[in-house]
Amino acid sequence: MLRSCYRPLERCLGLRSGDGLLWHKDLKPHASGDFSIAVVQANSTLEDQSQVFTSPSSTYVGVYDGHGGPEASRFVKFSSEHGGLSSEVIKKAFSATEEDFLHLVKRSFPVRPKIASVGSCCLVGMISDGVLYVANLGDSRAVLGCRVSVGQMSRVVAQRLSTDHNVASEEVRKEVKALHPDDSAIVVNCHGVWRIKGIIQVSRSIGDVYLKKPELNRDPIFQQLGNPLYLRRPVLTAEPSILKRKLKPEDLFLIFASDGLWEHLSDEAAIEIVFKNPRSGIAKRLVGAALQEAAKKREMRYKDIKKIEKGVRRHFHDDITVVVIYLDHHNSSASGRFKRSAAGYTTSPVDIFSNSD
């Protein structure tokens, strides 16, 4: 009896089921359809953060994948601009966020010098008046599921809308090397993994101040944390890649996810899962598919990974955040259904506590 009463509350609050480190909201409305969100924690402290803001006329999605700690991803919170939406407005928002976090680092540095080495990838999507903007720093990714007709048949294809700023890509390595022609060690292969200065894979981020402010590395306080790093100039930037797209009736859905998902699923595999399965709980299904793949790589079963506590679990997979946005813009009933609801704001938990906590 108590269990049956608990289940509706669990669905309402987006609580966990099955996997003690999994949080999800199965299906909620937005201005032009439905959305689903899911997060699974692997790190001792959840470094992924996310938000979905909905109103009768617009939808905003943010996925923030932190590294070195959770401070930067928790700090990043974009909001709608009342002065209209444009690439210039988005650039200013990214710049302001970077500057605000820099001020926080400078204030905290004397007592918490490690905060200078904390950063976050940042992926945002905004839909308003049938126009989509996608902007990103780092290697979180946005992928569009688009219907195409082949004769009498139709299928869905994946179209990547964001740019992976990761030196695993030869194109990104060339970009970084071109900016540092006098530094032969700007990109180093460490045990088969390319890293900038042998430290970090992403070339753009919020934070990572010690890689953007060379003078910080000369501070005696920071040097006490480890080997000093001497930089001629900043080696990371906070300049976002921005895409603008007029949505079309054949644009069916969007997947926004941190790189924890894309480490295990290709763009095409993720799109197929969304296209072939029911909407409710689809973000959770994508997380589950990624964890199944992670388990296979270690010759394990997903149910075995579920038993592993956060922290230790990071050896098997990363924190994973997934937001799926369905685009029913060609269906007037979707917009009408939402307009009867109030504006909404959904944000993932700061941390997910396992069942044994």
Automatic annotation (TrEMBL):
<protein>
    <recommendedName>
        <fullName>protein-serine/threonine phosphatase</fullName>
        <ecNumber>3.1.3.16</ecNumber>
    </recommendedName>
</protein>
<keyword id="KW-0460">Magnesium</keyword>
<dbReference type="InterPro" id="IPR036457">
    <property type="entry name" value="PPM-type-like_dom_sf"/>
</dbReference>
<keyword id="KW-0904">Protein phosphatase</keyword>
<dbReference type="Pfam" id="PF00481">
    <property type="entry name" value="PP2C"/>
</dbReference>
<dbReference type="GO" id="GO:0004722">
    <property type="term" value="F:protein serine/threonine phosphatase activity"/>
</dbReference>
<dbReference type="InterPro" id="IPR015655">
    <property type="entry name" value="PP2C"/>
</dbReference>
<keyword id="KW-0464">Manganese</keyword>
<comment type="similarity">
    <text>Belongs to the PP2C family.</text>
</comment>
<feature type="domain" description="PPM-type phosphatase">
    <location>
        <begin position="34"/>
        <end position="327"/>
    </location>
</feature>
<dbReference type="GO" id="GO:0046872">
    <property type="term" value="F:metal ion binding"/>
</dbReference>
<keyword id="KW-0479">Metal-binding</keyword>
<keyword id="KW-0378">Hydrolase</keyword>
<dbReference type="InterPro" id="IPR001932">
    <property type="entry name" value="PPM-type_phosphatase-like_dom"/>
</dbReference>
<dbReference type="InterPro" id="IPR000222">
    <property type="entry name" value="PP2C_BS"/>
</dbReference>
